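Exam revision sheet. Question 4 asks you to relate a sequence to its structure. Input first:
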Amino acid sequence: MTRGPTLPAHRLPYLPRPLDAFNTAAADEAHALLLRCLRSPRWSRRLADHRPYPDLDALLAAADEAAYDLSPGDLAEALAGESLPELPEDTYSAAHMALSAAQAAYEARFGHGFVIYLGDVPPDEALDRILEAIRSRLTNDPEEERVTAAEELRRLARGRLGQFLGTVASCATSANAPLSGK
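Answer key, structure tokens:
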């Protein structure tokens, strides 16, 4: 018995990866996208200027390295662009009051808003984690808190960039949790 012709191998269509699109975007477009993720023009421009990145790990490593080189002014600018994540609508008002009071105490002590990465925290634990962290970090001296806040910014950047480059979404919507509402 003879067999019919063999069908050619099925090939999936090429779909550009978000990292490929980022690597080939115009410099101004890449800078603008990074600025929405990183909140610092210098940090964003440095990453945009060093494209292309072979993979996400290389971009994240470059983002970490560039963050360590931020001047105090650059760090202050990035911190000024941050805000606490929004609480779920059903959060009771006393929690909002407690969070507002803790945030005000933090800003009065350190001169900038509180920043924390919550990407690995279940939503129902976010409020407790934020309040616990603010209260704990209020005991830091200013230099220790500057280092902690800078580390939280790096974690936020890694989360945002990782999510952005894993999807076709933009970083424009996030303050503290990757791509959640601002």
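Marking note for examiners. Residues 168-182 have pLDDT under 50 and may be disordered.
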